[in-house]
Amino acid sequence: MERDVFLGRVQAALRGDALPAPAASAAVPQVRFGDAVARFVEEARAVDAEVSRVNSNTALEAISRIFEAAKEFRYLAWDGLDDVLPGLADRLQQASYQRVDATVATDPEQRRADHARIGVVPLGITAADTAIAASGSVVLAHGNGRPRSASLLVDTHIVLLPVGRIVHSLADALEVVDLESTSNVVVVTGPSRTSDIESALTLGVHGPRHVHILLIE
Prior knowledge:
29% helix, four-stranded mixed beta sheet, Rossmann fold, alpha/beta, six-stranded parallel beta sheet
């Protein structure tokens, strides 16, 4: 917009004249793939996420292999994971894995102690509210019983993703997630990475170094 036109509009507004209606925005083009699931797997692996196709019987075996590779038995988790993988909590307990309480107090001193307690837990398990085929991303809506620490503070993040939750694009994902009932929404595309230091790519600086997506079929 030309400077004189812009200043003229500002002067008109200051005089009490109504500003012109904004121009109509162009429609967002639809992104579609022939096989959204295959595209998601391809894109997720391209950004260093590890994707395993599992079912309700083989999922725990896959989780156990991840725990064994990490040489750890403690984990943080979201509530309600049994809705995604029935019986998961009992099966993890029977396998002697220990879920650490991710609750953080409001009292400043206790809050620091809670952060120190959960900050050393290396594994986290969450579900994905949806996933984006175009970028291989998983979308996590946080809130009560869905701590951010389970996906952001841990070294290894395990994501439970029912195959039916994969959509084609970010626009589709925003239609799925209930933005009104969540504290925040995070779109995770592979492990955390940065090349700020001498342009050398480093994983795990700002978040998980390993992201395992269990694609439940």
